[in-house]
Amino acid sequence: MKPCVHRGGPGKEAPALYDEIRLEWDHAEEPALREFAVKALLNKALCLGELKRLPEAISVYDELLDRFLTATDPAVRELVAKALMEKGRALSSLKRRKETIAVYDQLLQVLSTASEVSLHVAVADALNEKGRELWALDRRDEPSTPSTRC
Predict the structure, then answer these.
(1) Secondary structure (3-state) at 138
(2) What topology does CATH give the domain 5-136?
(3) Burial class of residue 108 (count of CB atoms within 10 Å of its CB; 0-12, 13-18, 19+)
(4) Which of 40, 66, 69, 114 is 20 to 30 A from 105, alpha carbon to alpha carbon?
């Protein structure tokens, strides 16, 4: 389900609704409850992206990453990986290629040693997307990864 679809169309009020959900669970100590706050931020950013409000979406991804990038809870780490990938895609849509590459490098740095299989998929996706960005910048000879990771 798309985070911004409401009765068959884009729900312009959805970003504010995600803010309400986030505020409700923002300071929860229990990981399962705190995950609601992370999901709300991620869904708000995805929704803003669907509404073609990419700069705002990027700001929300930044907020999520500022707060949860170093989280240790596996469920939150998966959401962080998705936020990094989606932020990279948003930046790429805006043709901000160097920033896009930096986001994929950040994902590689933070998640390349993860033990969760789902995060290995995110690392592989980041390597692939980084390669596309390097290709678009005509930097085809550059390695896709700062060091040996896989």
Answers:
(1) coil
(2) 1.25.40
(3) buried
(4) 40
